[in-house]
Amino acid sequence: MDNDEPLEDETKDETETELAAQSSDDMLYCEAEAPTTVVKEKPTWEDSETDLEIEDTERSFTTGQRELYLEACKLVGVVPVSYFIRNMEEPYMNLSHHGLGPMGTKAIAIALVSNTAIIGLELEDNCIMEEGVLSLVEMLHENYYLQELNISDNDLGLEGAKIIADFLQRSISSLWKLKLSALNVGLQSLDLSWNHFHIQGAMALCSGLRTNVTLKKLNLSMNGFGNEGAQALGEVLKLNSCLTHVDVSGNDISNEGASKLSRGLEYNETLQELKLFLNPITMDGAVLLILSIKRNPKSKMEELDISNVLVTEQFTKTLDGVYAVHPQLNVLYDTVKSLSGKKQALSLRTKPMKLIQSYVDQHKIRIVDFFKSLNPTGAMEMPVGEFRRAMIQQNKVPLNRNQVGELIKKLEEPKGMVNFSSLL
Q1: Strand, helix or coil at 268?
Q2: How far apart (Å, rounded) are the C-alpha atoms in residues 373 and 378?
């Protein structure tokens, strides 16, 4: 056989493994120490230079894709995947269930930095974890050919999910399809605001939220997904038993969308805060929302933000009926200036803490003991909703809702609790 002819297919895999293990002066990386003994500080993907970059940039582009991948495997200490080598020039690469792990994923990512053939990559069920996600995100900042990526069922964890969320907010890559299955559990807070993913993106996201059992806080503000997206979210609220805070401000949701959301609020038993600020909702839509909460005896709603909606005195009377059923609820809205409004403003001139201080001085008790008496557990802190309910229902120091709201601003902590320790 001529020495210049390629090796037969049956010996290809074996030869590739041998090439990955052997020492060569032509390799791009220093081989003085075994890769497993090198301890590197974990990079952050925001860095302008990443450890996916080859030191000799010009040589990395002239080196064949096969050799680049083999050297990457040698660098991180993993066995090359022969299927990847054989299909590096194909548009779609399926590496699902290959047991890559974070280091195997890193080797793949290094090879893909300069790959211009692969536009679709399947990496489902490879236990890539946080470090593997970091490598992929670094690669996506350099590769402008990859368009579809599936990293479902990969033990991403909270940190991995944060990396992805941050990438989605800032990315200028060509990626347009990213698949994350609900099996990537652990994520509790997700901010996807200002991403302009519109209707299809909202519906895809809501499809995943139907079975999610960990996400508590979701920010989808400023995405313009309209009434169709609101309908999808309303269906999620009917089924979801985990979400506590949802922000859909600035999404072009009208009364029609408010009606769809209200149907979800009639059944939801966990949501505490819903922000609908900067949506074209009128008082009619606002009435639908508050009445849906009233009809739900198990509602945990504590705050509904419709603060750009101008309402009349009739709305406030309807709202009083809702408050009677759910005293923990606080609705933020705009109101027509009227005589009753002026009277209300006058009543607010007396600061709530001054009224409470007067009461405790008269009864010769500490102010902190007054607040602790509102808590059934006698603890120094309590959830905001329970505190609002207790303050409104107590008859020692009569306060209106605005005064109670002022107290909450003074005592609230970021985790949604009011703490009396500052009063000691």
Answers
A1: coil
A2: 6
**Backbone CA torsion sign across 166, 169, 172, 177:** positive
SS3 (DSSP) at 326: coil
- Per-residue pLDDT tens for 363-417? 899 999 999 899 988 889 899 888 988 988 888 888 888 888 888 888 888 778 8
Q: Which residues pair with 290 in a beta bridge?
A: none
Record the tokens describing residue 354, joined without a space: 């001054």
The Cα-based distances of 65 to 49, 71, 114 in angstroms read: 21, 10, 8
Burial environment of residue 346 by CB neighbours within 10 A (0 to 12, 13 to 18, 19 or more): exposed
Contact 184, 156 (CB under 8 A): yes
Question: 244: which 2 tokens?
Answer: 């506590």
Task: Output the CA–CA distances (angstroms, integers) from residue 98 to 80, 157, 341, in the order listed.
Answer: 11, 20, 67
Tell me the per-residue pLDDT of 305-344, one tens digit each, with 9 for 90 and over.
999 999 999 999 999 999 999 998 999 998 765 434 444 4
Q: What is the dihedral of CA 219, 225, 227, 231, to 10 degrees?
A: -60
Characterize the bridge pairing of strands 177-179 and 189-191. unpaired
Beta strand segments in 231-311, E: 245-247, 273-275, 303-311
